Amino acid sequence: MVDWTEEKLAALTDQQVKNLRENAERKGVADLLEKCTAELSRRNALKPKREAKPRSELKEFEFQVSEQIAQIGKDVAGKYDLSEATAKARSEGVKGFKSHKLLDSKGFAKLGGMQRDGSVAIERYISYRRGNDTVYLGVFLPKGADVEAHEFHVIAPSAVLEGGKPVAQIRPSATEKQKQPADSGLSFKDLPSAATAFDKALAKVTA
Question: What is the spatial distance between Cα 137 and Cα 74, in angstroms, rounded to a whole number?
């Protein structure tokens, strides 16, 4: 039987030590099992830890603005009844109705379809649906554009959105499938102004 000293174990590859450890565990050789475990732990401790790559300017902006838009969602959720139960109750009779989750599963703004399919660099948004009416607030950055070129879009039915323009006018690159289900929209360069317009439209939809 081989006397597995620390020196002999150190001369083995990682996989060889793992194989030896498995054999020791299977045969119930506690002393060797302990030595192999200690050797693998030592090697793991000596391996340089991978440092997380810093976010690009684009990704950092996306992260920050997703958080900011999500906070607006949380604020309006405290003002209006945006529960799924109420949305369904007030949408009775609407064929194919499906309520919208205001935020994504991590509590950030949701990932838009145009970013998902690569049509744009960034589309992050929050939305609420009741009946046939959908109110949307999101950030929009065309593909290949500088971060400074981003816009904030509020999309909602023309009946509740003051001064709204056709969605095709604020999103000329969007296909019919990519357009949000509403007939009017507004574009802003700053989030507070967009948030105010979103709040006003939401107040009317939930009234």
Answer: 13
Please tell me the distance from the alpha carbon of residue 129 to that of residue 124, in angstroms, as a whole number.
17
Model pTM score? 0.72
- Centre a 10 Å sphere on the Cβ of residue 31 and count the other Cβ atoms it contains: 9
CA nearest to 152, candidates 186, 177, 127, 104: 186
DSSP state for residue 128 in the 8-state scheme? E
End-to-end CA gap in the chain: 83
User: CB-based contacts of 4: which residues, under 8 Å, 6+ apart?
Assistant: 20, 32, 35, 36
Say whether pLDDT at 47 is over 90: no
CB 138 within 8 Å of CB 152 = yes
Q: Over the stretch 53-79, which tens digit does the pLDDT of each residue have?
A: 777 899 999 999 999 999 999 999 999
Q: Where are the domains of the chain?
A: 6-46, 57-206
DSSP per-residue letters across 52-81: PPPPPHHHHHHHHHHHHHHHHHHHHHTTS-
